[in-house]
Amino acid sequence: MMIKPKIMIVDDDELNRQILMTILGDEYEYVQAENGREAIHMLQQDLTINLMLLDINMPEVNGFQVLERMNTFHWINEIPVIIISSEEKRTVIERAYIFGAEDYICRPFDAFITRKRVQNTINLHANQKRLMQMVSDQIYEKEENNNLMIGILSHVVEFRNSESGEHVIQVRTVTELLLRQLIKKTDEYGLSESDIAMISTASALHDIGKISIPESILNKPGKLTKEEFQIIKTHTTNGADIIRQMVSRQEKPLLRFAWEICRWHHERWDGNGYPDGLIGEQIPISAQVVALADVYDALTSKRCYKDAYDHKTAMDMILNGECGAHNPLLLKCMREIESELRKAELCSEENYVYRYEADRLAAEIMQKKDMPNNDRAQRILEVMQEKIDFFASLKGGIQFDYNSISRLVNVVNWNEPPQYRHTVINVEDTNCFKCLSQKDYHRMKNALDATTPENREFSMSIMMPQGSDFEWCDLRIHSLWSEQHPDHYIGAVGQLTRPQQEVGDLPVLDDLSEGENLEGKAVQNAMKQLEQIFDYVRLVDPAANAILEVDQNGILRKTEQHCAAFWDTGGNCANCISSRALTQKKMLNKLEFTRSDMFYVVAKYLCINGTPCVLELLSKMNEGRWIDANGTRFLLDKSRGEHRELFSDPLTGTYSRRYFETYSIHMEGMECVEIIDVDQFKRVNDTYGHPAGDVVLRDIASAIQSCIRSNDILIRYGGDEFLLLFPKMTEKDMEEKNIRIKKAVEDIVITEYPELHLSVSIGGVCGVHPIREAIHQADQLMYENKRMLQE
């Protein structure tokens, strides 16, 4: 049975919808929407629409707003739209085309023309999709084959040579970057897209000849003898021979490029290379480019005989001719792609697989910025770019990439040596989460489940085992969503870091080695520097429960102060981290509470003038960056460069809506949620002007702040609407709090406008989760409260 094309008709006039269906006949399947809002909702549920007929003038959401939403989610590339309207103004018609409409039909309808334009639009778009899918499948198959070959070669090189398998991948990446910059500057070499793809692929074979070199020479950590170097040089001719034996290089362009690269990637522009001493343009451009890429990666990578150079040093060495002479035009290209080279250092080759091919095909075939979303290559590219952006913002730690379909997690632990750095975990195996407590596991899962396409990221602190102890770690996760189906979750990327490790990276702490006998004055100077970073810095003797000090002569002395008094516990600490640091002679960390505050504590064992003690570093976390479900508030972490003004409402001084949207996942544990709305606020603006409205909002915000606790959170949620969050509170206490807030607002006297009498309506709920549902219910209760006051 033939499937009928599906047409969505969006028009608030039922008669117009019926006329269109009558004109088009029964060869189509129809779905109808009475307005733009209903159309958007239907598209969210089903994108198998072959054509949309869209009216412009509709209540609630008009046609242009529908087009805006379709552009936002890239639906416009999947579903062609024909505008149907009685509006004949040129500006309106032009705007429709700018928003992506394929055609514009004015009422009254001509039946024949309407049928033909609908049929032609559906056929044209179907043909475009088929063509794009065919090309996409070819790209996908080609890249899969290429990546398989490159993966095999990477392991061959890694197995036999001291170079890591990443060398092959990085050389290919840099080769492609150089070639693309080269064709922008000159057409002298006549390089086509096919040539660039084949040279980049063939670059993976540049060192294949090394499989014939003895491992004792390949992996020798010291300087090679003259005889050994002569043997190493034969990898060029050996590799070329391997390629020649496969098939005549004239028959297959890929193998011709591979032969050139294998034999001549150590030739140099001035003729001082090997094996044939070629000069200048005698060296094929394929070998020239790979030679430069090979040198750059060799400099920036660690070898058994050298450490890695940083990017700037490597660039200086290449441009100064310290690594042999290269084509001056290629050196210029390398300077111009310097920023991309830096990025390539952080990202694996797979991040570049589809970028240029997809962009080129999109421009040639569709003449649009993006490919249709059902194109696999484009979808992969978009997800890859999102991952690149996330990982580019990170440094070190344990980074992971989770695929919800395969249920596999690729993990890269940057704290491990390269050979142990990469692992793959199957989340179906329950043992993979055994290091997490049940509480942390469920917190993480609930937070991930609460992410949305609009709010994809969250952070939290979790306990992780470290040897025989546990320590707090920072977890940051970014969820990934399908662009084709915005509500479809496809995976996540993330990072796990140890705050203690970040603290341990401080140069000043490196000077305070745990095993050394330190001088008192050196410790005193170090503590002054640390006081610029931490809120409290002190020396303690946990065995004697005493605070220590270093006097002006550098002598360590015991004071009369009790070290546990700071924590206001009424006695000794039950789980003293400093006692454990002293016993284990190491640095430890944890989160510790006083009655009103929370601190991140680092305890580092020291030996000063022969006396063992502990250096305590304390950071107050009330201005940290999390909000925990247990009611302790953590807001913005200044050490991460997040400034409070970015999340502060400039008018009222409360937190802004941006703050809530950014950190809402961390607020899921809030016990009570309230919506507070200013009564008759529009009348204030209309009667007295917007300056008066600003004064009203500032004073009301201050009045609310005066009634709440320091760990309660007030957010300006909308124009005259506030969101109030209580970490720990009973429903009875909330009701009493509301009476105080209303009284405080009613008592406001604005000297500039003494006749103004202010009031607010409040709706609140307790124990409702998730938080957005709590806000929804609180909002409804607030409007009920407002209606009761008006009756």
| Relative strand content | 15-25%
- Structural class by sheet pairing and helices: alpha+beta
State the end-to-end CA separation: 62 Å
Number of strands: 22
* CATH hierarchy class name of the largest domain: Mainly Alpha
Helix percent reads 40-55%
Question: What number of domains?
Answer: 5
Radius of gyration: 34 Å
Question: Can you tell me the overall shape?
Answer: flat
**CATH level 4 superfamily of the largest domain:** Hypothetical protein af1432
CATH fold naming of the largest domain: Hypothetical protein af1432
Please describe the biggest sheet, giving its number of strands, its sense, and whether it closes into a barrel: 7 strands, mixed
Task: Tell me what the CATH architecture of the largest domain is.
Answer: Orthogonal Bundle
Task: Give the mean pLDDT.
Answer: 79
Unreliable residue stretches: 346-377, 622-644
Give the number of helices. Answer: 26
